[in-house]
Amino acid sequence: MIHTVKRGETLSSIAGDYRLSLASLIAANPGFTPNLIYVGQRIVIPGFPSPSTIPFSIYISLSNRTLTLLYQGQTRKVYPVGVGRMLHETPRGDFILINKAPNPGGPYGTMWMSLSKKGYGIHGTNDPSSIGKYVSKGCVRMHNQDVEELSRTIPIGTLVSIRP
């Protein structure tokens, strides 16, 4: 998979976002100068498929508080979601799904799916009344049965686009 460096990112922050060691990121990019990265630079992220090889993608609308599952660009299903509140906004941009963890416990409901933005994910909830609201600390909350269905459908590496 290829990551394009964004403003404010460091090699260390990119490694953290993908839960990789800095050494493995450097090893995947021979001829790369680790302390000289720049906006727009393309970096190989080892261990993840290219999102272009996956027929599924996800579009999250923060203003509509919906998550749309797409298959080959066509809407397959739309789910209601809860998103970040003021001062804890859900990050905007393009990410990939990097792991899945069933039964994470606590407020995360029955499934956690990490995004390639450290600390953020799509997860279930122990408070179903929060769905459809601006309530989280930046994550995307779903009804437990919805996040379980989504998790069974999409593979690791799925593109997740979050927009206002």
Automatic annotation (TrEMBL):
A Pfam family assignment: LysM
Positions of the catalytic residues: H123, C139
Protein name from the UniProt record: L,D-transpeptidase
Similarity-based family: Belongs to the YkuD family.
Gene3D superfamilies xref list: L,D-transpeptidase catalytic domain-like, LysM domain
GO biological process assignments: cell wall organization; peptidoglycan-protein cross-linking; regulation of cell shape
Gene Ontology CC terms, in alphabetical order: extracellular region
SMART domains per UniProt: LysM (SM00257)
GO molecular function (one): peptidoglycan L,D-transpeptidase activity
Annotated L,D-TPase catalytic domain residues: 56-163
SUPFAM superfamilies noted in UniProt: L,D-transpeptidase catalytic domain-like, LysM domain
Protein keywords: Cell shape, Cell wall biogenesis/degradation, Glycosyltransferase, Hydrolase, Peptidoglycan synthesis, Transferase
Pathway terms, separated by semicolons: Cell wall biogenesis; peptidoglycan biosynthesis
Signal peptide segment: none
Domain LysM intervals: 1-45
Keyword Cell cycle attributed: no
